[in-house]
Amino acid sequence: MVIDLTEKQAFRERMIKALLFFCGMVSVLTTLGIVGILVFETWGFFQHVSFKQFFGDTQWTPLFTNQHFGIWALVSGTVLTSAVAIGTALPLGLLAAIYLSEFATKNFRLFVKPALEVLAGIPTVIYGYFALTFMTPFLQNFIPGLSGFNALGAGIVMGMMILPIIASLSEDAIYAVPPSLKEGAYALGANKLATIFKVVLPSSFSGIAAATILAISRAIGETMIVVIAAGQQPNFSFDPREAIQTMTAYIVQVSLGDTPTGTLAYQTIFAVGMTLFLFTLLLNLFAHHLRRRILKGHL
Asked: Is 60 helix (H, G, I), strand (E, B) or coil?
């Protein structure tokens, strides 16, 4: 009887291991399939377009008769909106995290933190129309020359969208700092603000940095807000008052079905997708490197 139970238990364990292995392999194979399609289609694109045309031009007009394939027009739009978003979300999110972890009462923290995280669940299409119909008209009252479609309004609203990521994860990192570190700072005569900025924030820097990088990745990959509010004009410009086009917005434009499959214009979405993939990959590698340096005590 004992032998039968042991054999059944071993069989169940093997089945569980096989199931877990299958689940892990599905995610790995899916990732490899996505990367393989990107590489294959991007290779086909570069059979017709040289690297000099792709990286040495600042005009992006693959859908026009006079075609240009300068990716920097889309990169500048992506970087501009992401920079505005991070410039909005980082200070507000970090200050919110400091307040919730160090100054707010327990009941207030338990109420406000879930309410703040609700912002992350709002559909991005709603954020996009909010940026177009409210934020942009509001900013036009104060900023002369602000276009109806612009990177500023879209970036600010995108910052509101990613603010819960920075605030929530940073608050968790700050809240996890051992009380003994703060008590030691108080014992040495430091006040509360000095303790926060000289002890708590440096101790929680790894969590704050991870939250910031995650928010940047989210901003770079955002689609609906920039499609609706930032425009579809691939201008190589860093003026947030102008209409721009991001890499994700261009992919949406071509994917609507007006471009025939298999054409050079159609292949551009894979070249742009590969560029976007490399952007996020570099961010993840930087985050991994930063985490390793922090764990080794090099910072």
From this structure: strand
**Same domain membership, residue 262 and residue 146:** yes
Q: 230 is written with which tokens?
A: 């930032």
Say whether pLDDT at 1 is over 60: no
Q: What is the CATH number of the domain that holds 124?
A: 1.10.3720.10
Residues 6 or more apart in contact with residue 70 via CB below 8 angstroms? 53, 54, 55, 56, 57, 58, 59, 60, 236
User: Looking at the 3D structure of the chain, how many domains does it have?
Assistant: 2
Residue 61, domain member (yes or no): no
Q: Choose among 137, 133, 157: nearest CA to 147.
A: 137
Q: Are residues 102 and 18 in the same domain?
A: no
- Identify whether residues 38 and 79 lie together within a single domain: no
What's the CA gap between 264 and 258, in Å, rounded?
Answer: 13
pLDDT classification of 299: cutoffs 50, 70, 90: very low
pTM recorded for the entire structure:
0.85
Q: Tell me which residue range forms the domain holding 30.
A: 2-45
Helix or strand or coil: residue 51?
helix
User: Mean pLDDT over all residues of the chain?
Assistant: 85
Determine the distance from the C-alpha atom of residue 136 to the mean position of all C-alpha atoms in its chain, rounded to a whole number: 22
